[in-house]
Write a structure and sequence with these properties.
One of its GO terms (molecular function) is ADP binding. The chain is an alpha/beta fold. It has 33 helices and 47 strands. Among the domains are: 117-277, Rossmann fold (3-Layer(aba) Sandwich); 292-440, Rossmann fold (3-Layer(aba) Sandwich); 446-462 and 478-503, no CATH class; 511-595, Orthogonal Bundle (Arc Repressor Mutant, subunit A); 598-668, no CATH class; 821-976, Leucine-rich repeat, LRR (right-handed beta-alpha superhelix) (Alpha-Beta Horseshoe); 977-1097, Jelly Rolls (Sandwich), CATH 2.60.120. Helix 29 links the parallel strand 18 and strand 19 (656-660). The longest helix is centred in the first third of the chain and has 16 residues, at 186-201.
Length: 1203
């Protein structure tokens, strides 16, 4: 059966006279007229496009449309009706069905099965009870159809009306048998009226008329026995009631049905049709469906029923949140509106079973095609092509991997227009990989919903009894809104006593329920080893702590938290609120239960000890083992005498140590008190004589660095005071630190001076003082012979009092003294961004920096930079972004790799780039007056060229750059424009393009170049979406998805992106049928796509020769490809990364009480090696009388503080 189903709409179509038919048919069966099919369907489609008002109704067209149009106009005029008309190419018996969008009932928290009966039989008993109806009823029963027939269901002598009405309401299909004496029965007519009311009031009902020994036209106009019957009724009933009966009977007679005249074959036809109509795919839902209706309504918002495109809807969330239940409810709710439906439950688990892939494909095909007897030789081909013209609803439940869908050949292009694909998963990133835009993460049940669900399962009532109210609320709090937990525990506590409830709640604190844990642990088991460690560390130590702080600690443990935490968030194992890590209570208990493992009573065998009592017990008894990796220790005064440093000697794999009141700090080498918001001064370093790295980041109230820091003269190598906004001065003792290599003062907004003794920091290699109030750099800075990095971004006060202008009247003596760089012979990075610099304030001795590799001057007030940057022979990165007055610059260095000059709105021309042979990225976005970039078209290694909004660059010059460019990598060219160059071989006005690799005289296909015009509603905003291309080799069945370019800056004006991709990975060959699609995300509209193939040139000349052209100007430079292969961007990548804003190293809150002594401190210790980034230590050597110099403990402050 084939039909086209449109979204739920209110339709007010108008039909031309060409579509009207005569009021009667010449035969018993009403025949459709093919001549009116197309005009009718066109009218329907037109109506759909503009009649989007009012309540939701559905229209499904079929070949009897002209007849229906006449019925619609004559009988209903412009009244609102809902018509479902089916099309069957194999039969001429059509039936019209009235239908309305289904509404799930949710009464008293309990969801009933949708239908009690499959079929309700409405007929006049004396006419046919023992004849036609008897045979039909037996045929239905034989076919497994549960039919209601009054003499079978209701005992004689009962008041049958209420039960009959209930049976009508709970029946899916209503068979109305219109016999000659039908209208004489008041019961039949009353039932019919109620049937019609059900059709109007509730969705999903179907009405199928059977004309038994009567002509449909006689019923319609009500002549013969029908007229006689109504005449008799007028003598007994009111005229309004009779008119209601007549109108109802007439409306039913207008529907397409069956005409029966003694042919028994017709009974089989009716039975078969009913089987096809029944919702055999109805899925069972939980008995108590609290909160389901509201959440299904939210899913409806994502279904986009007003679109004929194939839409995908993702349901994601933690295990047990109800994703599958909601998918089933949505499936039951909307399945009737589709031509085919399939629910592939537990897709991921089935896929991993033997023959699981084939099973899933067979179920999908049999569900949608409604055939179980077809054998397909090629299942993949069948899945890809059998549904392309069908509007289907498919649910893929619990998908675990993108490869599972690819392997089963399921792709959104497999399904016809208007199809909806619902995917449930515990992994949000998987949905994003599949291109799902409409993603819904259902909320946990709120307190009221949770209490109601617990009450239904525990007491079978909506509210718990008064005696159990408090216990029920405790259970609700424990479950944390997770429906799975409430169902399992509520059912377990059904008919339990108060004492049993209390005992169970206490037990749950120690031993989580095994059934709940098993469901939750599925997500944990899918993690990589490092991600599992991160999850367990958080569940045991870091819940509620600052994410950046935890990130730094985990990074020190070599657990790669940047990606690890992201994965945990995508899998709903961890959430971040106000930058703090939050974990569902049941997930926390699951993590700790995993740590306990099978050694529940032997905590020394656990990998983590989060309970201080367990930790003290292990240390006091010296029973620690290699298994322990993390330990939380809050030492009480009474425990101090029982704990010594040697207690840690057996903890050879310890990497995390959380301490309070420690008395053995003398060996510490790494102390991190960052984010200690109440810390006003550093500890007395007399107690910390071996500190090598000291972090005091974001200590907002810190005003004093203790003078005993002089004791660290030969120890301290790193001091980070970033963000200490109250710090005004540094002690002179700090400048005596002979070993200090890195000093970070950035963000110390009240720090105005550095002492003249700065030059005595003889080991200093890095000095960062960005956005400070410094008014002067001491002249002794030229003694910093080892300094490699100097960063003074945002230090406007260095020149604040001079306020130099370009006016000729400005007195010369008002000019400031420029920064002296003499003597800084090792300087590699210099940052002077946003320092209010003008042309004259560029350091005069800048050219002496022979080792300088990165120079940042962005955000300054230059006009004509006459500095000879070409003399900086090592310079690789030059940043001049947002120099809004810059008009020109003198030269560029030969080794330049990255040049940034975006938002230089006055810049008209760059220096000649032809000598910058190493240039790999050029950023000139928003240079509105830029006319030319000389030499750019001659360069062959520039992988990224940003020329967005450079409006004055000519089309000719722009195309010359594009035509010569073909550099592999995640970059490309970005230019203004909307039309593809004329040399592009393949073009398509969509986001994808298909082509066949042509034969060529040169068989060496080295890659292809893409052109994509795009536009956005956003303006000058960077897209957060990671753009990608997908290449499908339909000949070989290979699919690749890879990044297209870095994040794209969005504009309302049209731009073109050009990217090149090597054939080394794709291995495309002659004759391959290939499809390439580009995805820039939902905020960017792709206007067109172009593609040209590039073949390797066989050079016969040693000089630059013309590139051989194959087909439509498919070009590439062999030398360029070879250069790219030999080149390598590791160094550039490293430098680019360094040039970006540093990742914030966040730490937890800490308090130090006492002016000169360390009285109260809670810290986290990470074992590591000197100068290593918190690396894992295989063995912690025992401490013997303080003689062992190899013990290394790196401290981190823990969130929270004591008053």
């Amino acid at each position: 059966m084939a039909s086209a189903i449109y979204p739920s709409l209110r339709l007010r179509p108008t039909f031309s006279s060409a579509t009207s038919l005569s009021s009667s048919s010449s035969s018993g069966d009403i025949k459709p007229r093919p001549a009116v099919i197309l005009p009718l369907l066109v009218s329907v489609v037109n109506c759909i496009t503009y009649s989007l008002t009012g309540k939701g109704l559905s229209l499904i067209g079929h070949s009897a449309g002209g007849w229906l149009a006449r019925v619609y106009m004559e009988e209903y005029g412009t009244a609102d009706i809902s018509l479902l008309l089916t099309l069957d190419h194999h039969r001429e018996d059509y039936q019209g069905l009235l239908i309305k969008q289904e509404v799930m009932t949710e009464s008293s928290g309990k969801i009933r099965e949708r239908w009690t009966y499959d079929v309700f039989l409405n007929f006049r008993g004396p006419d046919m009870r023992n004849g036609f109806m008897g045979h039909l009823y037996k045929s239905l029963v034989r076919s497994g159809i549960y039919a209601f027939k009054d003499d079978e269901e209701i005992e004689r002598g009962e008041d049958i009306s209420p039960k009959l009405l209930k049976a009508i309401e709970n029946s899916k299909i209503h068979l109305v048998v219109l016999s000659p004496n039908y209208a004489s029965s008041r019961w039949c007519l009353d039932e019919l009226v109620h049937i019609m009311q059900c059709l109007e009031m509730e969705s999903g009902h179907m009405l199928l008329p059977i004309f038994y020994d009567v002509h449909p036209a006689d019923v319609r106009v009500q002549i013969g026995p029908f007229a006689e019957a109504f005449d008799k009724h007028r003598s007994r009933y009111t005229e309004s009631k009779v008119q209601t009966w007549k109108a109802t009977l007439a409306s039913v007679a207008h529907l397409r049905g069956y005409v029966y005249s003694g042919n028994d074959d017709r009974i089989e036809v009716i039975t078969r049709d009913i089987l096809q109509r029944l919702p055999s795919s109805y899925l069972h839902l939980p008995t108590y469906g609290v909160g389901i209706k509201l959440r299904v309504h939210r899913i409806n918002e994502f279904m986009c029923f007003d679109s004929d495109d194939v839409q995908t809807i993702g349901l994601c969330g933690m295990g047990g949140i109800g994703k599958t239940t909601l998918a089933k409810a949505a499936y039951n709710e909307y399945s009737y509106s589709f031509e085919g439906t399939s629910f592939l439950e537990n897709f991921g688990e089935y896929f991993k079973k033997p023959q699981g892939k084939v099973h899933l494909q067979q179920k999908l095909l049999s569900d949608i095609l409604r055939r179980h007897d077809i054998v397909f030789n090629n299942m993949d081909h069948a899945v890809k092509h059998r549904f392309r013209n069908k509007r289907v609803l498919v649910v893929l439940d619990n998908v675990e991997d993108v490869k599972q869908l690819h392997s089963t050949a399921i792709d959104w292009s497999c399904f016809g227009p208007g199809s909806r694909i619902i995917i449930t998963s515990r992994n949000k990133h998987l949905l994003e990989q599949l291109g799902v835009v409409n993603i819904y993460s259902p909320d946990a049940l709120n307190g009221k919903e949770s209490l109601e669900l617990v009450s239904w399962h525990s007491f079978r009532t909506e509210k718990p009894p008064a005696d159990f109210r408090q216990l029920s609320e405790k259970l609700v709090e424990y479950c944390g809104g997770l429906p799975l937990a409430m169902e399992i525990l509520g059912a377990f506590l059904f008919k339990r006593s108060i004492s049993e409830w209390r005992s169970t709640l206490e037990l749950l604190k120690q031993t989580p329920n095994a059934d709940i844990q098993a469901k939750l642990q599925i997500s944990f088991d899918a993690l990589d080893p490092e991600q599992k460690d991160i999850f367990l560390d958080i569940s045991c130590f870091f819940i509620g702590m600052d994410k950046d702080y935890v990130n730094c600690i985990l990074d020190g443990c070599k657990l790669y938290p940047d990606i690890g935490l992201t994965v945990l968030k995508e899998r709903f194992l961890v959430t971040v609120r106000d930058n703090r890590l939050v974990m569902h209570g049941l997930l926390r208990e699951m993590g700790r239960n995993i740590v306990r493992g099978t050694s529940r009573n032997h905590c020394e065998r656990w990998s983590r000890l989060w309970d201080p009592d367990d930790a003290i017990d292990v240390l006091a008894n010296n029973s620690g083992t290699d298994a322990i990796e993390g330990l939380s220790l809050k030492v009480r005064a009474t425990d101090d005498e029982n704990l010594v440093a040697e207690a840690f000697s057996n903890l050879r794999n310890l990497r995390l140590l959380q301490l309070s009141h420690p008395q053995f700090l003398g060996k510490l080498k790494y102390l991190d008190l960052s984010h200690s918001l109440q810390l006003t001064e550093t500890p007395d370093f007399w107690y910390l004589p071996n500190i090598e790295k000291l972090l005091l980041i974001n200590c907002k109230k810190l005003v004093l660095v203790h003078k005993t820091i002089r004791l660290l003269s030969r120890k301290l190598v790193l001091l980070n005071l970033k963000g200490c906004t109250e710090l005004r001065d540094l002690p002179v003792e700090l400048y005596r630190l002979k070993s200090l290599e890195t000093l970070i003062l950035s963000g110390c907004s009240q720090l105005e001076r550095l002492d003249d003794a700065l030059g005595e920091l003889e080991s200093l290699t890095t000095l960062k003082a960005d956005f400070t109030a410094l008014r002067k750099i001491p002249s002794s800075s030229n003694q910093l012979k080892k300094l490699k990095e100097l960063s003074l971004d945002g230090c406007k006060d260095l020149w604040k009092d001079r306020d130099y202008t370009h006016s000729d009247e400005s007195p010369q003596e008002s000019l400031p003294t420029t920064l002296s760089l003499t003597g800084l012979t090792c300087l590699m990075t210099l940052r002077l961004g946003s320092c209010n610099l003008s042309d004259e304030l560029i350091p005069e001795d800048l050219g002496s920096l022979s080792c300088l590799e990165e120079l940042d001057l962005q955000g300054n007030n230059f006009r004509n930079l006459q500095t000879d940057f070409g003399g900086l022979l090592s310079l690789q990165i030059l940043k001049l972004d947002s120099c809004s007055e810059l008009e020109s610059l003198f030269s560029l260095p030969k080794k330049l790799r990255s040049f940034y000059a975006s938002n230089c709105i006055m810049l008209e021309r760059t220096p000649d780039l032809s000598g910058c042979l190493a240039l790999q990225s050029l950023h000139l976005t928003n240079c509105f007056n830029l006319v030319e970039t000389p030499g750019l078209d001659t360069l062959k290694r520039v992988g990224v060229i940003h020329l967005e909004m450079c409006k004055r660059i000519s089309d000719t010059y722009r195309e010359r750059i594009m035509q010569r460019w073909a550099v592999d990598g995640n970059g490309g060219i970005f230019v203004l424009g909307s039309s593809l160059p004329n040399w592009v071989s393949f073009k398509n006005e969509k986001h994808s393009i298909s082509f066949t690799v042509p034969k060529s005289l040169n068989p060496d296909l080295v890659g292809f170049t893409l052109w994509t015009p795009y536009v956005s509603q956003q303006n000058d905003v960077m897209s957060a979406y990671s753009s990608k291309i997908t290449l499908t080799n339909q000949t070989k069945g290979d699919v690749w998805s890879l990044p297209a370019t870095d994040h794209i800056r969005m504009y309302r004006e049209k731009h073109i992106w050009q990217g090149h991709f090597s054939n080394e990975e794709f291995n495309l060959q002659t004759g391959d049928q290939v499809e390439v699609s580009v995805d820039f995300g939902g905020q960017i509209a792709i206007l067109e796509i172009g593609l040209s193939l590039a073949y390797r040139e066989e050079d016969t000349d040693s000089s630059d020769s013309d590139t051989s052209e194959v087909g439509h100007d498919e070009i590439i430079d062999e030398q360029l490809i070879l250069t790219e292969a030999a080149g390598g961007d590791d160094e550039l990548v490293m430098e680019e990364t360094q040039s970006r804003p540093r990742r914030k190293m966040g730490m937890g809150l800490k308090t130090l009480v006492g002016a000169f002594g360390l009285l109260t401190m809670t810290v986290i210790v990470v074992l590591g090696i000197h100068n290593g980034m918190l690396r894992r230590q295989n063995r912690l050597r025992s401490i013997d009388g303080g003689k062992n110099k190899d013990a290394r403990l790196k401290f981190f402050s823990r969130q929270g503080f004591l008053n």
